[in-house]
Amino acid sequence: MERHDFIDELHSWNIFSEAAFFGGDFNLVRYQKDKSNGLVDFKWCEKFNEWIDSKSLLELELMGRKFTWSNNQKNPIFSNIDQIFCSTELDCIFPLVSAKALPREPSDHVPIVWDSGCNCNIPKPRFKFEKWWLGHSDFGKIVEKVSGEKVEGNNAVDIWNGKVRKFRRVVKGWSNNVEAKTRRTKERLSREYDNLDILAES
């Protein structure tokens, strides 16, 4: 399949409206550092990253190995063309998720194991109110929406506690999404800055 056909197929996928993760051999790299010789086609890097941004996806950082593929030549070229992505909704459900590389031989690709992190014996982090929420235009709407929703309870205290629990759950998911979007924006701006440096040097 030609690269432009593959990018079109990626854009046609409609599986990102809820918690989901997927991965495989995309045969595309995101950055220059993802190839050992640094020879990449920046046009396709940009198109691949545009698709990732458009679907609000998060890439799982691979533990245990920098590259996932080798051409198995005498002077080998390594690249990171196998990735695992997840939606922000899944990231909220499995905050301790990880991806680990296994030994590559005899394949030219590295097997990758996805771990939900459910068996990790790590205490659940306490709810933390972030100061930046107060300056965000959507925060007031969230407070108003949650406070206006009906919550079952035997008395005013039960109802108040129910609304507080719901607020914590809703605002945590919203905060994760905002922070993920901010990270993607920073990555995009960093890529654009790197490309400008490369053009200036050429």
Automatic annotation (TrEMBL):
InterPro entries: Endo/exonu/phosph_ase_sf (IPR036691). It comes from the Eukaryota. PANTHER family: BNAC02G09200D PROTEIN, ENDONUCLEASE_EXONUCLEASE_PHOSPHATASE DOMAIN-CONTAINING PROTEIN. This is Uncharacterized protein. It comes from Eleusine coracana subsp. coracana. The lineage of its organism: Eukaryota, Viridiplantae, Streptophyta, Embryophyta, Tracheophyta. The gene is ga15987.
